[in-house]
Design goal:
It is a single chain. By secondary structure, this protein is mostly helical. The chain has helices at about 15-50, 55, 60-70, 75-80, 85-105, 110-115, 115-150, 155-170. The two termini are about 20 Å apart.
Length: about 170
């Protein structure tokens, strides 16, 4: 996409159906991106707890665990900590890159690009691609959660429609 220079103080604060629809897409995309990151962190910590239950019974170890939970660890390093097969890790890394795009780049000059129908279609196309990457990784994380917690996997229909439902939810207007 081509970005045109915008005066940073020139923002249209008018609440219209068009702006509500456009900014709702951003909000839902950010929700999925944040959820992905949170799930990676939760699984990383859960795997650590499962392999070392003493972390919850030994006060010294428990304090270390709390420090670790609060400490910033990059998403890339959290993914590495999971120690998954290379093919699965690649899917998670691709999702991380899509998460980074959504959080840091997709909204640059959004208000100008989204003003035209062609611009809006391009934005939706971008979001679909990146949300699809994240939702495919979410399926793997869901399976991993089920394995770690001895829960049954969702039924086949849910499983097959999972990614498309997320994509549709994000870009629906």
């Amino acid at each position: 996409m081509i970005y045109k220079q915008m005066n940073p103080f020139d923002f249209n604060f008018e609440l219209t159906e068009f702006s509500i629809e456009n900014y709702s897409i951003i909000g839902r995309a950010l929700t999925i991106a944040i959820k992905f990151e949170s799930e990676i962190k939760a699984i990383s910590i859960f795997k650590e707890l499962k392999s070392n239950p003493e972390l919850l019974t030994n006060e010294k170890e428990y304090k270390k665990l709390i420090k670790r939970i609060k400490k910033f660890i990059s998403l890339h390093n959290r993914i590495k900590e999971l120690n998954l097969r290379e093919d699965i890790e690649k899917i998670l890394v691709k999702a991380k890159e899509s998460r980074n795009y959504i959080v840091h780049e997709s909204n640059l000059n959004f208000e100008n690009i989204s003003e035209s129908e062609d611009g809006r279609k391009a934005i939706i196309r971008d979001y679909k691609e990146h949300i699809k990457n994240i939702s495919e990784a979410e399926k793997l994380l869901l399976a991993l959660q089920c394995i770690l917690t001895n829960e049954a996997l969702p039924n086949n229909e849910y499983w097959q429609n999972f990614s498309n439902k997320i994509v549709d939810w994000v870009v629906s207007v």
